[in-house]
Amino acid sequence: xxxxxxxxxxxxxxxxxxxxxxxxxxxxxxxxxxxxxxxxxxxxxxxxxxxxxxxxxxxxxxxxxxxxxxxxxxxxxxxxxxxxxxxxxxxxxxxxxxxxxxxxxxxxxxxxxxxxxxxxxxxxxxxxxxxxxxxxxxxxxxxxxxxxxxxxxxxxxxxxxxxxxxxxxxxxxxxxxxxxxxxxxxxxxxxxxxxxxxxxxxxxxxxxxxxxxxxxxxxxxxxxxxxxxxxxxxxxxxxxxxxxxxxxxxxxxxxxxxxxxxxxxxxxxxxxxxxxxxxxxxxxxxxxxxxxxxxxxxxxxxxxxxxxxxxxxxxxxxxxxxxxxxxxxxxxxxxxxxxxxxxxxxxxxxxxxxxxxxxxxxxxxxxxxxxxxxxxxxxxxxxxxxxxxxxxxxxxxxxxxxxxxxxxxxxxxxxxxxxxxxxxxxxxxxxxxxxxxxxxxxxxxxxxxxxxxxxxxxxxxxxxxxxxxxxxxxxxxxxxxxxxxxxxxxxxxxxxxxxxxxxxxxxxxxxxxxxxxxxxxxxxxxx
Length: 527
Prior knowledge:
Helices cover 65% and strands 11% of the residues. By secondary structure, it is of the alpha/beta class.
């Protein structure tokens, strides 16, 4: 389940090796304190020399600063830094997968799950992965070192300690099945909360306009309360499994203290050795408790690894019912949404450069039809004939866009490409654009609807200048009359060399289009 998280780069492997060594060294350095305590009690105090005690204290404080400074930087800080880098690496993989995912697969993907996984759950997954690779291995080694040290001091205490360790493993397995079920359900319920929240936020304007705030608030409250109940159940099992090792830890320490005290009474060990062993035993069971905690957290994170891998490997089996070629030819075709027929296409052929108009009432599915042709939706079902549509390399579609970046307008047009002076000059003439150097902000966006449309058209014209097919969905919306006249003229001139399909209600295109298609009575036909 770690395939998607493996640090393949050499630098990351070196980082993991370095942190493994520092974690091990840092924990071994902690042994100084019980050993120094034994020296103080059994060897220094009996000398009754104040200067030796003061020297011991000064040296111990200096070493304490050194040890905890080392642990802070090389274990805590660098460990957190590595987890953050790893989490961001996962996020980059997720966004890269989504950006390169086929449109059909993207439409099938649960967006609430993707957002929740990418933003919040990657941190948990990264920490669990790091702890499993670094903390777990160093803790096991350190546990073995502590047991060996105990065995050197007193073999009986070491044997008793070893006999108790399996009980920790048994405790960690209690209620594991119920815990796993609660994890899965909690993840699914929070996905629904995120999905509902995003939907309400995205449609805030529409909700305000119809004055139904309370309806959507109550709807969100129901989903939120459902998640709350699931979360409480999840917290119960998670906390229960966490507290059991601590209870056993404390109980075991009390038992071993009693045994050690009896051994001191019978002169089997010295008082200093008892204190030293008690401190080592505290360290030892902290390590054992950490092992159990890491394993529990790993179980807790397992669904997250599965979700990350699910997204990274996600592909939809649904395909459009056509093949790609250099022409656009559909016949005997049904356009549908979730098995609901929108309309039937008898014969829709675009072969020669011209201006083609598709006109229909709202809701007929003409824009959806173009999305199917572009591969953004899967809603074309052929009859006997094989449909052919252009490849993405020779077809471009312009629709309403919300894609803006916080940068100059000119950079929003060319998107990481060098501005072309002649193209800029031509666009300025068409759109009277005097705001090319304006800095765009997004929250809220400081552009009028007309300015947004101008940027979208300029960007479309630039990035699709060499493509054979153009699809323009309501290109004149929000433009002033002068711009409308210029855009129509520009599109008409381009149709001499390009095959341009315009979806529009505007009467301007009815007079200049070479061919016109309409959708009536669930039938796409030539007008």
